[in-house]
Structure formats: C-alpha cells, structure tokens
Write the structure tokens for this entry.
Amino acid sequence: MQIHGLRALDDNYIWLLQHDKTAWVVDPGDATVVLTALENLGLHLHGILITHHHYDHTQGVTDLLDHLGPMPVYGPVNSRFDAIDQPLKEGDRLALEGWILNVLQTPGHTLDHISFVNSQAAFTGDTLFTAGCGRLFEGTAEQMAASLKKLRTLPDDTLVYCGHEYTWANIHFAAQAEPDNPDILTRMAQTIANYKQGQPCVPAPMGLEKATNPFLRFDHAPLRQTLLERGAEETDASLFATLRAWKDNLDATGELEPKR
C-alpha cells in the first residue's frame, strides 16, 4: 500500500492510501485537496475512513460523496458524525485490497475516537501525534492514558500517521519534560532542520515515539519522578493529567511555537 500525505487547512494531514488505481482516504477535512490528488494520480476513491467526529477531519466527506458518488464511510460506532454508514469498534478489521487494518478504540481526545493500525502503519488521528498527543476535549485523563498505552504496544517499526503537524511544539516541550534525554535532543535538531527545509516530520516510527514522546513515557523514570514532584499521584490518570496540564499551560504562552 502506498501512502500519500496531503497537507490541508492550517496544519492537518489527510492520508490517501493507494493500491494500483484504487484509493481510500483517512480523515478528509478538505475535499478539494483530495479531489486534486485523485485527479493528479489517476486514482478512483473507494472508501473514506474517519477517526473521530471533529470538523477538520470530516468536513470534506459530503463534498467527496457529492462529486464521486456513494461509497462506504467507515468510522467509530456511536459517533456524532452521521455520514458514517460503516460503524466500527474495537477488534473490527478493515480489508483494503488485502491490506488489513485493525480497529482500536482510542478515546480521550474525543469519546468516539478510533485508530486504524497494523504492523506497518498506525493512523492515529488526534490521539497520538509525533512527539505529543491530543488535548482532552471530551474524554478523561484515564481514557487517554489507556489509549496511549495501547498504541505503544505496536512494533517499533510501525509508522505513525497522525492528523496534524505539531512536531515542533511537541518536541520542544519534550525537551523541557526530559532535558537529559539524548534521543529527544537529537530529534529536536532533526525537527528544526525539517521545518527550515519545509519537510514534513510525519510519519515517524513508533520506536522513535517510544523513545522521545513524553506522552508515551509518562509512567517511565525519570519523567514519572518529575511529574510526582509537580504534584501527580501514583496513578496513570494523574501522571498523564499532570503532564497534559503542563503542556497546555506552555501552549497558552506561545513559547513552544516556531518564531516567525
């Protein structure tokens, strides 16, 4: 399966999956970007995959159906997004021309969030980002901590295809959370180089995420000890919530963003 990353809106990634001349799209927040890519590549869209209901991941669906005709729209069961006609839950499997994607329920960012994964690729929407994770808009810290621990069981060479390009802010926060982690410092240097060259930082291998993403490391020493010193209790939910609040507070200052 060939995977094309389409940049859309301010910082979204739409993922176009290609097998021969057949395609599927993950989280089409912008129909125009998808239609242009389909035309340029000579592809026929056979289905739409949705990780969660937020508009920047779904607002292109209606236009795609209007332009291209009916096709399956796969997404989480009990979602607010009513265009889904193929509802999926934990343990379901999706076969795309023999390429199997397993469905994981990964709530936290939203209650309906799912991820599509196999040993090669993980489409994690807004649950797991490169070097970070999504904010808690609907779910609980306990849910998000469990979702992230579920995703970190994937093989190290699984590539993470997330929903946004937030790597700069995320890795700069990681360097504050774990200042003595040499893998984070190496990744930060590569991220800065990528941004300067206009190159994407997504996808990234899960092994790199396990080594450098603080939201996959909240229960690992020495970050765990740092969070306990910042007032966390000895539970996954409290450790994660303390880490997420730390990042949210820094995000609000703007200090993690690239200087223009």
